[in-house]
């Protein structure tokens, strides 16, 4: 599968065998990088909606897994692919006192590569905040 969007600086070439990713090159597609990497790492079949795999669920109807709420992901799910930082590492940094994206970045290096994971890290941090008045 090949996707090219030179006007926006996006490109993907993915080799799929028996519905599994065997090789991939992605540029300028942070949600796609996360989704394709997880499909590859876990040996999961790719969803039928291949465009949503690359661009997230807003691009197509019902993407399977791409663009999921980062706060609901398993602890081993990788949020930052540039520095291989899992959701669990972000949670541990939060529990150790890193209370915002900058502090999480300092503790884990998440967001310090391409920056495509910043929204996911921000969402996990927001989900960990205890509402005022709740002890």
Description:
- By secondary structure, the chain is α+β, with helices and mostly antiparallel strands.
- Helix content is 35%, strand content 19%.
- The chain contains 5 helices and 5 strands, in the order E-E-E-H-H-E-E-H-H-H.
- The protein has a 3-stranded antiparallel sheet, covered by helices on one side. A two-stranded antiparallel sheet has the order 4-5.
- Strand 4 and strand 5 form a beta hairpin.
- The longest helix is centred in the N-terminal third of the chain and has 13 residues.
- It is elongated.
- It starts with a strand and ends in a 7-residue tail after the last helix.
For the report, how would you describe the main beta sheet? Answer: 3 strands, antiparallel
Number of strands: 5
Q: Please report the number of helical segments.
A: 5
Measured on Cα atoms, how large is the radius of gyration? Answer: 16 Å
What sort of overall outline do the alpha carbons produce when their principal axes are compared? elongated
String of helices and strands: EEEHHEEHHH
Model regions low in confidence, pLDDT < 50 over at least 5 residues: 58-66
- Overall pLDDT: 83
Content-based structural category: alpha+beta
**What amount of the residues lies in strands?**
15-25%
Order of strands, widest sheet: 1-2-3
Instruction: Give the % helix.
Output: 25-40%
Could you tell me how far the N terminus lies from the C terminus, measured between alpha carbons in angstroms?
51 Å
